[in-house]
Specification:
The protein has 18 helices and no strands. By secondary structure, it is mostly helical. Helix 6 runs antiparallel to helix 7, helix 9 runs antiparallel to helix 10 and helix 12 runs parallel beside helix 14. The protein binds a DNA duplex through helix 3. This is HTH cro/C1-type domain-containing protein.
Length: 342
DNA sequence: AATTAGACAGCTTGCAGAAC
DNA sequence: GTTCTGCAAGCTGTCTAATT
């Protein structure tokens, strides 16, 4: 009896999502299975093989859980996915007010839906709570206590473990606890390498970039290069823009350190273009500053001057006066330094 | 008792073709 | 063009008898 129900439900759901996407059976079945097979699956005459079901779901752009779970669960899965996506967007924009709104709404929702009280979702909520303590309340101590509580036995296995560990690493980095931060980023990076499926495509760039920065600080250049090149490849192959400018900038300063001035110049150039497109004025000004230094080092003082002036003018666009002034001071220091050499 | 091999049933699949 | 059906092939799990 149970099998009959499963056959019908599976078929009905596939047919529903196929029609919702405006696909014909022929189109959906193409390169996956025979049209007649799909027909019989939809009509509840047979169950699809797992590999076929997986490909059907991919083409329909739905998680396989939508088909395998019952209707109530499917709605909840959809809600959780939407919530996670919105949180990621708010985090990317550093919009902690919106993040708090999503967090509170999800908390209320989970209180009213016992099905949502599963461990993974509650851990995700607690992670967001810790981020809010840290970034919104400027209370790193409280955030650290919660994050440490969320890392059980130091085990980093799934996506949420990696997010928690990465956040704790960043927090420790701010407190200058570099050794422990490095250990956490390395563990997160290794866990990511061993995770076959990660939903959040920005997780790898976030963790890898943090680790690369620490390697740079510790003068572990070859490891830093390795991660940066991997990151570049990952961003390109996943059509991602996330931290693309930062990676170019890091590669620029790495090559500058190696005295490969021409390659460094190329990376700084790319970083400037990406930051100016993203309107990240502080980063853009810093990249122009670095570019100017390269020109000075190559003996091209005319271009050096041109770029420091550009860097100064972009620094004026930075909203945070403190940051703006600090960057301008650094630029002026460079101007003095190279002017005295002429 | 545990393992292996063969027979068998049930199921999914793709192909071909009919019906609408 | 889309939907539906019949059929043969192939895969998998279960049962049973033989063997170790």
């Amino acid at each position: 009896m149970r099998r009959i129900g499963l056959l019908e439900k599976t078929g009905e759901k596939i047919a529903y999502y196929r029609k919702k996407n405006g696909f014909s059976r022929q189109y959906l079945a193409d390169n996956i299975c025979d049209e007649s097979t799909l027909y019989r699956i939809e009509k509840g005459q047979q169950l699809p093989r797992l590999d076929i079901l997986k490909e059907i779901c991919m083409k329909l752009n739905i998680p396989i859980e939508y088909i395998l779970s019952d209707n109530d669960e499917a709605e909840l899965i959809s809600y959780v996915q939407k919530f996670k996506r919105l949180c990621r967007e708010s985090l990317y924009q550093l919009d902690f007010i919106t993040l708090q709104y999503h967090y509170e709404e999800a908390k209320n929702f989970s209180n009213n839906n016992p099905l949502l009280n599963n461990r993974q979702f509650l851990r995700f909520l607690s992670w967001i709570e810790a981020v809010l303590y840290h970034k919104r309340d400027q209370n790193p101590e409280k955030a650290e206590i919660l994050l440490r509580k969320l890392i059980q036995n130091g085990k980093i296995i799934n996506e949420i473990d990696i997010n928690i560990t990465n956040s704790l690493g960043l927090l420790l980095l701010e407190q200058n606890k570099l050794k422990e931060a490095l250990r956490l980023f390395i563990s997160s990076y290794k866990a990511l390498e061993n995770s076959p499926y990660i939903e959040d495509k920005s997780l790898f760039p976030r963790v890898a970039y943090n680790l690369a920065c620490l390697y740079y600080e510790n003068h572990r250049d070859s490891e830093c290069f390795d991660i940066c090149y991997r990151l570049e490849y990952y961003l390109q192959s996943n059509h991602l823009f996330y931290c693309a400018g930062e990676v170019r900038y890091l590669l620029g300063i790495l090559h500058k350190r190696k005295n490969d001035l021409d390659i460094a110049q190329q990376y700084f150039d790319e970083a400037v273009n990406i930051f100016s497109f993203e309107r990240k004025y502080a980063f853009c000004s810093q990249s122009l500053h670095s570019l100017a230094e390269i020109h000075y080092l190559k003996g091209d003082s005319r271009n050096g001057e041109l770029h420091v002036n550009k860097a100064l003018s972009i620094a004026d666009s930075i909203n945070d006066q403190e940051i703006s002034n600090a960057i301008k001071e650094e630029i002026k220091h460079t101007i003095k330094q190279y002017a005295s050499r002429l």
